[in-house]
Hints:
It is built from 5 helices and 13 strands. Strands 1, 2, 3, 4, 5, 6, 7, 8, 9, 10, 11, 12 and 13 form a 13-stranded antiparallel sheet that branches. It is globular.
Amino acid sequence: MTDARHFLGMEQMGDDLHWRLTVVPELTTPGNFLFGGCGLGAALVALEAASGRPTVWSTAQYLSFAPTDVVLDLSVTLAAVGRRITQGRAVGRVGDTEILTVNAALGEPGNLEVGGVWVTPPDVPPPSECPPRRLPDFSSTSIFDRIDVRLAKGRTFEEISSGSGSPGQPDSALWARVPGHLEPSAATLAIIGDYVTGGVSQPLGRRTMSRSLDNTVRVVRLEPTEWVLCDIRIQALVDGFGQGIAYLWSESGSLLATASQSMSVRLWD
């Protein structure tokens, strides 16, 4: 089983506060820069190692691009360490250029006896009964070559591309897994949660390209699962800026986390 640290190819630089990641093609978008979810995932690996605690909440602000083959250096600051909660941040730089800033709260599970989950997963077929999600031939290696994705709900890329641009539903869903059974972690969910941006095409019925401005992950509870259901719900697209959220479910129907994003959107002609 491969963990997120090895999947991302992260290297510890002397201590838990300093890490390095080489932006190989398998961690990039088809546009040849670091996939946002991989950047957030790498920061969470570093923050969890430095704090010794699991992620409760994290948010990434994407400031610039890290192109293929550069080295991303991550520096961790533990700003406040309490008895149960650590507040920290990680800053990723390429040379002197700041690429992303991640703030996070990390903490141990509490002993509160009451609680619940008050949202429900969509009624979709299991992964084995869903078709692979097909994307255009980008003629380059990217993160999409390493993640197995099945379309559970919504229109295919071909249906949107060949359609008349008729509006559709704002909700869609994807099953996603990393072959090799990547162990469940906040970093893994950050990578899968970054698929929110691809959901904008569904309500529009038009091909779009979206750039993540942020990526926020709120962890509910981790449990072993081969596949994660990314239940995407686009909330709005106004003046070229969109907002959406994904509920991330295990195969057994447990809520693992939520992921939300703001994004800059343009039509993909």
